[in-house]
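Sample intake — Epimerase
Collected from: Streptomyces cinereoruber
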Amino acid sequence: MQRSASRKRVAVTGASGLIGSALVRSLRADGHDVLRLVRRPARTADEVEWDPERLYVDAAGLVGVDAVVHLAGAGVGERRWNEAYKKEIRDSRVLGTTAVAQALASLAEPPEVLVCGTALGWYGDTGSRAVDEDAPAGTGFLPSVCVEWEAAAAPAEEAGIRVAYARTGLVVAREGGAWGRLFPLFRAGLGGRMGDGGQYWSFISLHDEVAALRHMVDTPSLSGPVNLTAPEPVTNREVTAAMGRVLRRPTLLTVPAPALRIVLGDFAQDVLGSQRVLPGRLLETGFDFAFPTIDEAVRAAAR
C-alpha cells in the first residue's frame, strides 16, 4: 500500500465496523492521527461524540482534521428486511451523512476532503451489462437510498470541500460483512450457488477496499462517484467455484430463490440481482489492485 507523503489527521465514522476498523489500523500503522466518531460521550483524546439520529456532531472535535471518511450505516445484510429495517437502513445513512456534512460545513477551516462511503446499490440490477460511474441510478429501494445518501453530503460540497463517494461492492473478508457469513458455510461443505448462479457479484478484497479509500483521500482529482470493486466482476456461480477451490470443499448445494426470500425478505431480490460494475475512476487514476481476481481475494481473506 502506498504511503501518504505527509502525516494527516483523519476522522472516521463507522470505525468499529469491518472496513472502518481495518482503515483505522492501516492509517495508524503509517503514522497518521485518527479520530473515531462514537455514539456516546468521548472518553479519550482520539474520540469525537456524534448522534446521527439527532443530526448532532461535536464539531469542535473536528477542528484541524485534514480528511473525513464516513462509513457508518446499518448493515444491509445484517437482518431480514421488513419495512422497519428498511427505514433504519435509509435513516442511518441519510441522517448520518447529513450530520457529518453539516458539521464540516460549519467549521471555519473545513477539511480538504470528505470520502463518503455509499454502495453499488446505486446502479440497481444491471444484468450482464457492464457499467461504470457514468451510469444513472437504477430503480428500487437500494438505488433510492443511495441517491438520498449521496445528496445528503451537499452541505460539504457547498462549503468547498472535495467530496468523493465510495460506491463499494461486496467486500471479501472472513471477519464480517456478507462474505463473513459465507466462509463458515463453505468451510463446513454447505456452500453453494444462490438461485441460478448467473447473477454478477462485483467484489473487492478488504485490503484493496482500505487501499482504495486511502487513494481517494490522497488523490485530489477524485471527486464524485468512485466504484470500489475489482476489475473483473464474476457470477455467483464463479464465486461458488472459487470458494470451493480455495477452501477445498464441495460446493454441490444450491439455495433456491424461494428459500432466500423466506430468510432474507425483500433483500433477497438484491442477492439474486446482478451487478456488473467496473472501477473506471480507480483505474484512470493509477490505482493498483493487490488482489484483482476472485481466487486471489478469497485466498487473502482465508489466510
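Post-analysis note: The mean pLDDT is 93.
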